[in-house]
Amino acid sequence: MTIRQTSTPLSAHGDTAHFAKEVSGNYDLVLAFFCGLLLISNIGATKAIAFGLPFSVPIIGSNLITDGGAFLFPLTYVLGDVLAEVYGLRRARRAIVTGFVLSALAAVTFLVVSVSPPAPGWPNQEAWRSVLGFVPRIVVASLAGYLVGQFLNAYVLVKLKERMQERGLWARLVGSTVVGEFADTAIFCTIAFGGILSTRDVVSYTLIGYVYKVLVEVVCLPVTYAVIRALKKREPSY
Predict the structure, then answer these.
(1) Which candidate, 212, 200, 197, places its Cα nearest to that of 77?
(2) Which residues pair with 48 in a beta bridge?
(3) pLDDT (tens digit per residue) in 80-136
(4) Model-level pTM?
(5) What is the 3-state secondary structure (H, E, C) of 16-43?
(6) Using one digit for the tens of pLDDT, what is the confidence trace for 125-177?
(7) In whole angstroms, what is the distance from residue 224 CA to residue 147 CA?
(8) Residues 6 or more apart from 38 whose CB is under 8 A from it?
(9) In whole angstroms, what is the distance from residue 93 CA to residue 84 CA?
(10) At the N or C end, where does the chain have fewer CB atoms within 10 A?
(11) 3 state SS for the chain
(12) Which residues contact 179 (CB under 8 A, 6 or more apart)?
């Protein structure tokens, strides 16, 4: 009677390094830019900005009131459209939740840093606290507006695509932004500044922010089209 000896591959003994397989496609890059723009915008939004007008506009007055987040935040909706159009509602929702968690983490981190004692000779404690300190009302307003607005944006775009298929991309992009940005801007401005700023200033802040963000979406349509077209060609599963 002979005993047959079997050899086991070295990899089974752990003698070979193993790595997770690389995920094909560009979802990770879009997600990274989406979250990066969101975090930068949230920091910029801590500064209120007013552009004086040479004339007075009914309801708005003579000042265009906004915040520093207005420069980049509209682009999160552009990328939100890209995510929903190319990757669908489930993966768009994953990106939105990831951005929400990172924003909440940033707020908590700023709180911890703010209440930590400054090093001897470091004179900027109050400046830090006044700019990046945890303001519960602003944080709640920002997170609530973002979460509702982005979910509505993705939901509306996906539902329109289910009806329109690949036709009328511009209608999906603009229509979803009109709905999402309105909810985002209205919720943020109401929670953050209701009862603090005058009614005229709150209305001005809301209207200007909303119209500006929608216009950015419209102006960026050619770029959005190009990005979506390129991603669809490069996604093996599309």
Answers:
(1) 212
(2) 67
(3) 999 999 999 999 999 999 999 999 999 889 889 988 999 999 999 998 888 887 667
(4) 0.82
(5) CCCCCCCCCCCHHHHHHHHHHHHHHHHH
(6) 998 888 887 667 778 888 999 999 999 999 999 999 999 988 999 999 999 99
(7) 22
(8) 73, 76, 99, 102, 103, 146
(9) 8
(10) N
(11) CCCCCCCCCHHHHCCCCCCCCCCCCCHHHHHHHHHHHHHHHHHHCCCEEEEEEEEEECCCEEEEEEEHHHHCHHHHHHHHHHHHHHHHHHHHHHHHHHHHHHHHHHHHHHHHHHHCCCCCCCCCHHHHHHHHCCCHHHHHHHHHHHHHHHHHHHHHHHHHHHHHCCCCHHHHHHHHHHHHHHHHHHHHHHHHHCCCCCHHHHHHHHHHHHHHHHHHHHHCHHHHHHHHHHHHHHCCCC
(12) 152, 153, 156
Q: Quick one: tokens of 22? A: 């690389």
- Counting every residue, how long is the chain? 238
Q: Which amino acid is at 228?
A: I
